[in-house]
Amino acid sequence: MKPILGTSATWILLVCISLHAARAAEPPAWVQPMKEVRAKFTGTPGTLALFGDSITVSLAFWAGLEGEPKGMSPEAAAALQTVKGHQRPECWRQWRGPEFGNEGRMTIRWAHENVDAWLKKLNPEAAVILFGSNDLSELGVMEFEQKTGEVVDRCLKNGTVVLLTTLPPRSGLVEKSKQFAEAARRVAEAKKVPLIDYQAEILKRRPEDWDGSLAKFKDTPGSEYEVPTLIGRDGVHPSNPQAHRDLTDESLSRNGYLLRSYVTLLAYADVIKLVLSKGGRLPPPAPPAFPFDQETARQYQRAYAKAIKTPLEFSAVHGIELVFIPPGKFRMGSPHDELGRKDDESSHEVTITRPFYLGRFEVKFGQFRRWAEATRYVTDGEKRGGGHAHDAHAVWEHRPGTNWRKPGYAGPFELADDHPVVHVSHNDALAFCRWLTERERSNGGTVTFTLPSEAQWEWACRAGSGGRFSWGDGEDTTGKAINAGDRSLKRIHPEWPRSIMPMDDGFPFAAPVARFQPNGFGLFDMLGNVWEFCSTRSGPYPAEAVTDPGDLSADRGFAVRGGGWSNVAADCRCATRNADPPDFCHSNLGFRVALLLPAIEF
Asked: Among candidates 289, 379, 326, 416, which has minimal Cα distance to 584?
């Protein structure tokens, strides 16, 4: 089920990365009627009742979301934050049993007889209703529709917003279950309440083999709930295999209880944002005056994310960890007297108007490997027979046979999955980002993964710092701040001709990500380790103040920032610039992904 978003949900779409922008033009038909219902409510805000049969009383439904499920999409992460910020804690798992409106083997008749008592006892702000699986063998569709409508009416009269759910398909009674689902849809439309179309979602994800009682699943070990499809081996109850309890797309197609929790989560989050939240949102905090320290950066970042109700961080496909970066204004480039300054770094004011997400780490070798192997992608370096790499004397030239699997470092090095991937071109980085985007959009999404612009990169790198480095003006002496040319490199290559930083970081070449201290926004290795491609072409900086700058030239290479393991201190400053052609790759160059958010209006 895809939640329906409206005009007031456009903001939610923008900052919570909702994957349903196409429906954001007009509010759903249920929004205003449910606001009128909510106006009559006299109970405790955040209370959610779950009315239903065994598919509802089971703690396999809903309770598992109380923790932090792995593999959440941006949409799910935002929805869970919304729900956790609103729902009362006892409603995750404590409101279970007949006195709370859920019990095995029950039908809508039972709800019809008892709903007034439940409403009196609980007086819930909202109620999720799902009956039908037992009704199939005891009621006709007309009685089911009539009594469902009357139960909904009594909830609405109480001031309780209803989220009506269609029953799952049932083995042996497929056509009748479809008729009952259609009846629930008619009730939702007539009563103007939100619909959670659980049955449609099951049939969409597993149109041919949703039924765990099929012969293909008979040899699946374990209980009837362990079958890797959406309905258990009994053909009635949702499945709940132990191996599929995260919120990845794969698990949502193999765990029926998880799928129900997921579609309920999205729908309830929409109801909270469109109906139950009071008074609208407050504007996010104004950015602090630049420069500012790391603690101020963290406070501003958290406050902005909280104000717009978007996750501070989340994990995307292949475990790509993304961190929220708020907008702001800063001085890009460097002052005339900065040590190590180059002529292309003229200081100018830049305003970043839109928040965005940026990879916490550089894209890892293991993440890139899984994608390249799955898609059989061939990098530019592989097509050209190799990329550039240094020798022990810092001679940097084309080295045949080097590629992202074989970096070509001139010394002992064991490549691991958590090293940053190198020998990837701008073309390769964008291909990886397009694939991430396609994965999200194949599930109905509208988000776009890409690389940060050069301005976004420097704003995120500085995290408020106006100095040479994100931690200030002085070179690292601790070995904990940056992986750059230092004593560990000199130890491996005694004749290395370049100057080095005074520390010994323990890594003569690229280091696994997150081995050094993060900056104020929680980003690792923005300076050092490997250079990083940006989305925009390099060129001369403007003299005047600019807003959200893009390409600075039409024909120069793409901006490359941050410095790397082989570089001198001057090349690892926040303002240091470089540029490379789109098909160029080398052993000291990687990338990190960005997730763009549309413009925000208040």
From this structure: 379
| Structural domain range at position 172 | 9-276
- Tokens matching residue 250: 């794969």
State both tokens at 587. 């052993």
Annotate 134-170 with b (16+ C-beta within 10 A) or e (fewer).
Answer: bbbeebebebbbbbbbebbebbbebbbbbbbbbbbbb
Q: Report the range of poorest mean pLDDT among 6-10, 41-45, 199-203, 483-487.
A: 6-10
Find, among 73, 160, 84, the residue nearest to 115 by Cα.
160
Which amino acid belongs to residue 494?
Answer: P
Query: Rounded to whole angstroms, how far apart are CA atoms 152 and 169?
Result: 22
How confident is the model over 505-527, as a mean pLDDT? 97
Q: What is the pLDDT of residues 353-369, one digit of tens each?
A: 999 999 999 999 999 99
Beta bridge partners of residue 127, listed in sequence order: 49, 162
Tell me how many domains the chain contains: 2
pLDDT-derived band at 539, boundaries 50, 70, 90:
very high
Q: Per the domain annotation, does 507 fall within a domain? A: yes
Give me the residue label for tokens 């009416």.
Answer: 153
Residue 585 within a domain: yes
What is residue 485's DSSP assignment?
Answer: S
72-122 pLDDT, tens per residue? 887 888 888 889 888 999 999 999 999 999 999 999 999 999 999 999 999
- List the one residue out of 121, 111, 206 whose CA is nearest residue 149: 111
| Helical (H) or strand (E) element with 389 | strand 386-390
Predicted confidence at residue 19, as pLDDT, reads 36
pLDDT at 418 over 90: yes
Contact 290, 349 (CB under 8 A): no
Phi, psi values for residue 589, rounded to 5°: -135, 125
65 assigned to some structural domain: yes
Residue-level pLDDT at 72: 85
In a domain, 327, yes or no: no
Indicate the pairing of strand 448-450 with strand 161-165. unpaired
Q: What is the number of other CB atoms lying within 10 angstroms of the CB of residue 353?
A: 11
**Do 258 and 379 sit in the same domain of this protein?**
no
Residues 373 and 232 in one domain: no
Unique residue bearing structure tokens 């002529």: 343
Domain containing residue 141: CATH number: 3.40.50.1110
- Confidence at 316, pLDDT banded by 50, 70, 90: confident
Same domain as 154, residue 19? yes
CATH code (residue 487): 3.90.1580.10
How confident is the model over 436-461, as a mean pLDDT? Answer: 89
Q: Which of 232, 255, 276 is the last residue of a domain?
A: 276
44 CB burial (10 A radius; 0-12, 13-18, 19+): exposed
